[in-house]
Amino acid sequence: MIVSNTAFWLIVCFGSAYAVRYLPDSWYKASYFEEKPLERRLYRTLRINSWKDRLPEWGSVFHFEKKNLREDLDLVYLRRFIMETYYSESGHSMMAVLGFGCLLLNPASYSGMALMLACINVVVQIPFIVIQRYNRPRLMRLKIRLERASRQEKADRKEHANYDTARHHNRRQDA
């Protein structure tokens, strides 16, 4: 029974983490993932910023470290980071729900223990879900600022190029 329970939890946890990466992108556009009106107040009440970095982070398993933002931010990196928050939130949510499968795995005489483990698993998953929901809106706002700055930079370059072209054209006419 120890081996089957260990295998079950490993499959639930690692299987969920991988499975969410195969969901269609449209899955992550659901209103469920949008920040709800009371969430910001909840995050302040929970003081999430003071403890969120103390929890383990397994992004390196998927070749993307989410513990800290990179120094050299760009839009590609931010889009990937945002996508990783969707994956992580979905994976931890899936782990929380699928953990109740341990009730089916264990004999009826162990159902109390299995239910307790499933409930503990839900409690363990909640902080990781909350962290993703806390970080994603902030990353999205940062992405919008970078997109604006990028558009402005392109407009400035275009304006500068037009100015240089006009100046060059005027010099040719003067000669």
Topology readout:
Layout: H1 2-19, H2 39-46, H3 48-51, H4 75-98, H5 102-105, H6 111-174
Structure explained in plain terms:
This protein is mainly alpha-helical. It has one domain (2-137). The chain is built from six helices and no strands. Helix 4 runs antiparallel to helix 6 (111-174). The N and C termini lie far apart (92 Å).
Brief description of this entry?
By secondary structure, the chain is mostly helical. The protein is built from six helices and no strands.
Unreliable stretches covering 5 or more consecutive residues: none
Alpha-beta classification: mainly alpha
Distance between the termini: 92 Å
N-to-C series of helices and strands: HHHHHH
Number of strands: 0
**Shape label:** elongated
Tell me the strand percentage band: under 5%
What is the average per-residue confidence, as pLDDT, rounded to a whole number? 89
Number of domains: 1
The helix content, as a percent range, equals 55-70%
Largest sheet: none
Work out the radius of gyration.
Answer: 24 Å
Number of helices: 6
Q: Which structural traits does this protein have?
A:
175 residues; mainly alpha; 6 helices
